[in-house]
Structure formats: structure tokens, C-alpha cells
Amino acid sequence: MSKESITIIDYGIGNLLNVVRAFEHIGAQVRIAETRQDIISAGKLVLPGVGAFTNGMHELKVKNFIEPINAHASSGNPLLGICLGMQMLFDSSEEFELSEGLRLIPGKVVKIPDLGVNGTAHKIPHIGWNELVEVNPNSWNNSIFDSVDKNSATYFVHSYMGVPDDDTNRLANCDYDGIQICAAVQKGNVSGCQFHPERSGEIGLNILSNFLNKE
Fold this sequence. Notes:
This protein has 6 helices and 14 strands. The longest helix is centred in the C-terminal third of the chain and has 12 residues. Helix 1 links the parallel strand 1 and strand 2. Helix content is about 25%, strand content about 30%. The model has no long low-confidence stretch (mean pLDDT about 95).
């Protein structure tokens, strides 16, 4: 098992304990970032979260975490956003009101359409297991999806979805009644999962392990 160190940001929003347990399960030495200095000194950084975009960004601002997170990304060190944490990597979100994000992945966060492409209503939020689909050929090689089987299923809970400006930043999609939801993103050293790897069984643990062992 790996003994790599991982730093997980605690800003009072969401699924911190489950993410900590998942990384500990794969052998990581977990540090909790509660201060700016904890983020500044991090090697590999994880931004988890559940809930509303505006609330998440508000808490990051209150704790003065935005600048060190962006500095970490600019330094080339690995950064992983999970669920709300992935959405906050984008430029902005339309949830409740137009809100500015971290601007690490060009694009915006929008509401999942209430209807599938055939015009039939479907459940919002999108909850449950859905298959990951590779968007760009061979893009999973040397990514957090390296050696993950194509069409593996992971667990989703969300009402909004990220829409990258550049489709080359789409690492994976999932199909929800014909709507192509961005399931994962990657831009250089910055990655994000809309799904919850910490709740996605062995597939999710493999994804977290790939991030943990990223150079």
C-alpha cells in the first residue's frame, strides 16, 4: 500500500470524513487543511464538497483559501475536486445566482435539464450509479482513470453539471437520458470528479489511488 501524503481541505462543507476514510483505506497519510498555510505546504491537494456552489465559494472566501488553492494549481502540484469541489474549479455557476468560481477550468456550471432528449421528464437530482464514457481517445492514459475499465459505473448525486468551454478538458461523460453530463475533467495538473469516488466501491478507490500516486 502507498504511504504517499494527501491533504484534504476542510472548509465546513460536505463529505470530508468519507473522503478521509477512502484515502486512508488505500494507505495514504492524510493531512487536513484548516489554514492557508496547510494548503500552501500541501503536495497533493483535494477539494471535496457537497451542497450549493454559492455556499462553497463563500466558505472558501471567508477562510481566505481561494488564493492558496489557485497558487497550488499554478505551481503544477496535483489538485482534485470532488462533486461540489469539481464544480468550483469552473469559472462560474448559475445555481441560485451567477457566482464566480476558482477559474481553473474554463467553463460554467448549469442546471441539468428537467427533460431527457426524448422530452420525457426525469428525476432531478441525478442520483445513482452511471457509466463513465471516455470522451477523447486515449485521454485516460496517465490520468486519474488510468487502467480503469471503460464504462465502469460510479455514484452520482447532483442537480447541476459543469460544462467545459474546451471539450479536450472533458475526461469522461455519463449519459442521462441522452444528456451528456460531464462526469470528470482534467486540465494539466487539475482534475475533478462530479461523482463521488469515495462512494463508488473499488472503481472509486482505484481512481483515488491513481491521484495519490500521481507524479
